[in-house]
Amino acid sequence: MPSGVDVKTNQDVRPRDAAGQPNLAKLRDDGKADAAAAEPMFAIASVLAGAYWQCGVSGLRLGLATTRILAQGQLKLLEYARSSALPEFRDQALRVVVDDARLCLRDVADAAFEELGRLRSELTALQDSARELVPGREDTETAYQRRWKVKP
Amino acid sequence: MSAVVQSAEEDLPSNQESLAAALGLELELKRLQQSIAAWIDGCSKEMRGSLKWQFNGSAKYFRPVTVFSCFRATHDGDIGEEQRARALVVELIHNMTLIVDDILDQSKYRRNALTLHYRFGMLPALMTSGYIVSEAYRKVRARPEVIELISELIGRLGAAECLQWRLRSRPLGIEDWRQIATEDTGSMFEVCACLGSGDERLRKFGQLLGVLYHGCDDVADVRGATGLGGGGADDIRDGILTLPASIAIRNPRVAALFCDSAERTRDELAAALQAALPEAERMLDKIAAQARREANENAADARGLITLVDYTRSLSRR
């Protein structure tokens, strides 16, 4: 063994002293307090899990909607490809195909915009439910009264 | 979130007055008329004649109605001075655009009366439009957020007119029409919605309402309807990309007619536009459904907004 290397002996690795031992009685008391404190924590965790779930569902919804729109676009393209073999369709094919592709992209953008709005309102609802976890002071005062004197 | 409001097309208001009544805005529109009259009385003596002429016609006040409806859809309180000032400013800016449109289109009549430039001459009409803008800004000089929105509106309207002019007589597509409609009428109603709600939550609704209005106007013009006071013949002459035109020119033969400004082809083109109306109506139904969804998702009380959408949608069939 090379010299100069600090090697811990068995003596150095001491068992936890009394001060380091957990106080079981205290833990039991703390447990009750923790349970009370943990309740809103669980609620918050469930709100966050709910948000995760909403995001996932939203992503799926958007995925399905865009798949449907883009598949329809592809089908149209196939129809044009078939009909463009005919001479009377040849001239119009490219212009109309490009127009349809652009309309298809607009539909995708609209679907994304609508889904984002829907997700935003769902997350706002979750935010509201999270806010209610903090007990608020009942404000019974209705008439505003100045509590300081205005400087002359 | 409020309950989803369905459209009730059987109870639709038949005209602008009954729309105001259906929305409970008759008194507000009377107040708006009084504010306009009081404002004109306080303007430069040099401008009063032309301003009275411009603002005395049978205005539809559809934009102020949108401002008020968006306010009510998002607030519990009554319409106040702030909302009235915002509605007034929108009506001023709208009238400025009407004067410029009439000059550019060389229109002789608007709302059954001579247009401002026909009645007073080109220079007074142009100066009146500039005067209105300066007054609109003066009205909201203490409200930076309104100034921001008004600036956005005027800038977008100007750019949209240039875009529409640059793209005239070109065989473009439905998506190009959508972009033009969004920047032209859509931007106006976007700003109305933002001014009403005081934030951005109804911006998309306003845009869809504007695009719907633009599309219904296009379709009504082709039908020869008078509900919106348009004339489809001018659009055909100028090769303007309307909704029916953007659908009809998917056919290469019609596209060739559209690019050819010769008078002899106009009847044939008009017939092709008529044939495109069912498809145009379907597209407008889709836009209206989208606008209703936006209203239901973003307004605490969407009833007034749904009435606006239903009324606008009905304009293409009148």
Provide structural commentary:
- The complex is a heterodimer of chains A (152) and B (318).
- Chain A is mainly α.
- Chain A has a domain at 33-130.
- Chain A is 69% helix and 0% strand.
- In chain A, helix 1 packs antiparallel against helix 2 (87-131).
- Chain A is elongated, with a radius of gyration of 33 Å.
- Chain B has 318 residues and is mainly α.
- Chain B has 16 helices and 2 strands.
- Chain B has a two-stranded antiparallel sheet with strand order 1-2.
- In chain B, a hairpin with a 2-residue loop joins strand 1 (109-110) and strand 2.
- The longest helix of chain B is centred in the N-terminal third of the chain and has 25 residues, at 81-105.
- Classes of the chains: A mainly alpha (152), B mainly alpha (318).
- The A-B interface holds A 91-92, 95-96, 98-99, 102-103, 106, 110, 113-114, 117-118, 121, 125 and B 1, 171-176, 178, 204, 250-252, 255, 290, 293-294, 297-298.
Characterize the largest beta sheet of chain A: strand count, sense, and whether it forms a barrel.
Answer: none
Strand content of chain B: under 5%
Number of strands of chain A: 0
The SSE string of chain B, one letter per element, is HHHHHEEHHHHHHHHHHH
Quaternary state of the chains = heterodimer
The coarse overall form of chain A would be elongated
Radius of gyration of chain A (CA) equals: 33 Å
The sequence of SSEs of chain A as H and E is HH
What is the rounded Rg of chain B?
A: 19 Å
Indicate the percent of residues in helices of chain B: over 70%
Name the structural class of chain B: mainly alpha
Low-confidence runs of chain B? 225-231
